[in-house]
């Protein structure tokens, strides 16, 4: 496949990934707001997303093998088709049938769809960008940052659609967006993308690359550290302790995600150095671990809670975005072309495991803290976040201290 054809196909894959990301963010806000309005508390609403995270783990576990055997083009189409199925489950079920179990089933398909499209796009950038000095780093940062910014936009769109046309009509609009992306990708893409001569087997689900395995474990703790206070504890704290309306809490979190995405996109310029190494990941993680401790200390000593939490969250978002961007580059730097889909799958499986554990702990720790006072729950979650980040930094000490990209 020519360079021009590969670049064209990569642009199409990215477009499809953006469409799915937009829909994914919007679905999350739709489900949150809709069931909150029905009287579910924040912890019950959070349980709706457990299947989303669990099946994301399963998808990444086997998705790399599927991509290596059938090509990234196939896994992309699988992802978009599955997202349409997830939305169809919500669109065509009578309102009376939208039970917790039914929505959890839809979220399971949505989690599968999100990770299939993400794996396809993230793997494709390695094949197209090549290993030129700085080029892969810039492309990965731009892709990852734009994805998170669009997810934040999706939060706004989901909230807006719900207020304008209702839950099921909103899902129908999102289904149309994903469907258009699927049709455009099928019509415009030429040839394959990511087909390899050596087909991986399911017995090869675990990487033999030590750097990949170490980075995957570090990724697990990094995303567990974010979600242990961001997914459940933070929105509940904003709405109960600070007295924010739900749309205000959701809107602020959406802006945070958009800002987080922009920082990721410009990470190469912000860090102002050559391609990052394990050393970069180490000092970023250890520095980041101090922020939740400072936020927790401010709450413990009863400083102004809104200023402490919101200001701390902004600092946390900047540092976390840089750390995540470095990880996203390193996973591609550590793998060769024939193993890229396998290793990316392993890496994002660890990512999904971290999100799942973080979500569960966020609810449990916050609930435990409610027995003390309104801020204790968030403090417990922040301490857990700092501990996870410290472990991330310690693991990162064992990562290669130099760039190890395999040149063709």
Quick gist of this model?
This protein has 408 residues and is mostly helical.
Provide a descriptive summary of the structure in words.
By secondary structure, the protein is an all-alpha fold. It has a single domain (3-192, 205-396), classed as MFS general substrate transporter like domains (Growth Hormone, Chain: A, Up-down Bundle). It has 16 helices and no strands. The chain has helices at residues 3-37, 42-47, 50-70, 72-91, 100-129, 135-165, 167-188, 210-230, 233-240, 246-265, 267-271, 278-288, 290-300, 305-333, 340-369, 376-396. The protein is globular, with a radius of gyration of 20 Å.
Features of the shown structure:
single chain; 408 residues; mainly alpha; Growth Hormone, Chain: A; globular
Range of strand content: under 5%
Structural class: mainly alpha
What is the approximate shape? globular
CATH architecture: Up-down Bundle
Tally of separate domains: 1
Order of helical and strand elements: HHHHHHHHHHHHHHHH
Query: Residue ranges: pLDDT <50 for 5 or more in a row?
Result: none
Largest sheet composition: none
CATH homologous superfamily descriptor: MFS general substrate transporter like domains
Q: What is the first-to-last residue Cα distance?
A: 16 Å
* Percentage of residues assigned to helices: over 70%
> Total helix count?
16
Report the CATH C-level class: Mainly Alpha
The pLDDT mean sits at 80
Number of strands: 0
What's the gyration radius in Å?
A: 20 Å
Predict the CATH topology: Growth Hormone, Chain: A
